[in-house]
Every structure is written in structure tokens, then in C-alpha cells.
Specification:
The chain is an alpha/beta fold. It has a single domain, classed as Rossmann fold (3-Layer(aba) Sandwich). Helix content is about 40%, strand content about 15%. A 7-stranded parallel beta sheet has the order 3-2-1-4-5-6-9, with helices on both faces. A two-stranded antiparallel sheet has the order 7-8. The longest helix is centred in the middle third of the chain and has 29 residues. The chain is globular and about 55 Å long.
Amino acid sequence: MTAGRLSGKTALISGAARGQGAAEARLFAAEGANVVVSDVLDDEGLRVAEEIGASAVYARLDVTDSSGWDAAVALATSRFGRLDILVNNAGITEPGTITELALHDYDRVVAVNQTGPWLGIRAAVPAMRDAGGGSIINISSTLGFIGLAGEGAYVATKWALRGITRTAALELADDAIRVNSVHPGWIDTPMNPASLPMGDGSSLAQALRDHGFALGLTCPLRRIGTSDEVARVVLFLASDESAYCTGSEFVVDGGMGAGPLARG
């Protein structure tokens, strides 16, 4: 039997109960990895781990809690003997303009999307050093490159995650720990479903297919992406195939960030 691309490796994935995180967990396990499926959605996270089988375990993890991160890393090393891969996938959004969004809502988005990955990196590094190196993948967004009215909190954190990624890549290079970011665009997930209604009564998927744009953003491929398409890019970065990649940004957005799409 051909060895998987992640054989012998152990991965910790936050926000893995559904959407992109669940897709990453399933794909990693199919490629030979042991996986710690972590989330605050216990029932859904347990189902993902049980579906995968003996190579997966569920850990409840609030990414804003440093002790929770320590416990998740300890579970990875006690159950599987090592930690090689961290995917900072958990994220939330709280729509609202800068003048209207409540400070506590802004702070909550920052805590999950920005402080959470920072805590995850800090917790994972000692175990990765013990393993002889590793790969950290931070899930940002195409909105880490551009703005979007009414999503200031989300946009701010996704821009910040780019800076955290590059700084960590510099600081951890001597430990053979690579750090990269992935930037999905419109992806069919519970946070951003393809059925999301547009102002004209159509769905997001319909708007992209018919017009190539939605909410002021363009998509040259004229369709919404899938969690599996993002997971395959994350798999590349988790594997040794990306051994010379660190401090880099990988965009999975159907061309949305390339520029305006002419309407015709």
C-alpha cells in the first residue's frame, strides 16, 4: 500500500467540527495523519472524530483560552506521541459598520480570529520542536488583502493574521517549523453558505454563476468554492511537498482578488 502524504504525522485542527476544518481533518486522516479534531461544537466534533476512526480524537477547544490550547497539545502528544501540524482554522464574523458595531462584538472577533491563532502557535511550538519541526497553517481570507464594508472586525483580523504568519515564519525557521497562510474566498461553509440570499432574491451561488459578483466582490470562475478545494491546498502545506515554503500566502478564491471583473 502506498504511504499517504502525511503518514507518521499528527495534526491539530481548530474549528474542525464542520466546514473547512472538518474537510481538512478527513483529508489529513485519509493521507495517513493522526488528527486532533478540536472545536466548541462538541456533538459535531465528536461525530467527525468518530467517523474518521482510531486515527482521530476530539478535544473541546475554545481558541481564546490558553489553557485549552495546552490541553489540546497535550492530548495530541499523549495519544499519538508527537505534534507536527497545526491548522488555525477556527474563525467567526460579526457584521457591522465601524460606527455601529459594539466594542464587545469587535473584541470577540479579535479574540477568536487573531488572538486564537497566536495562542495556538505559542502552545504548539514546544511539541513541534520536540518532533524536529513542523508546519503551521493559518486560515486567513481573501479579505486579508482587501476591505469589505460592514465587515471591519473580520477584515481587520484577517489582515492581522498575515502579519502573525510572517513574523512566526521568521522566528521559527531555525526550528524547522514552517508557517504559511491560506486565503479562501467565497466557500460553501456554514458561515458562508452557497444558499446565502442576495438582495435581489437570488442565492450567493446563483449570483456568482450568473454575474460573477456578489456584495461588491468579483469571482472570475463564477462559482462558489468548496471546503475540499481549500483542504487540498492546506494538505500541500502540511506535507513535506511544501518543504521550501514558509512565510507565504496561498489564495484559494476563484480569482476574486485578481481585480474587477467586467460585467457584460
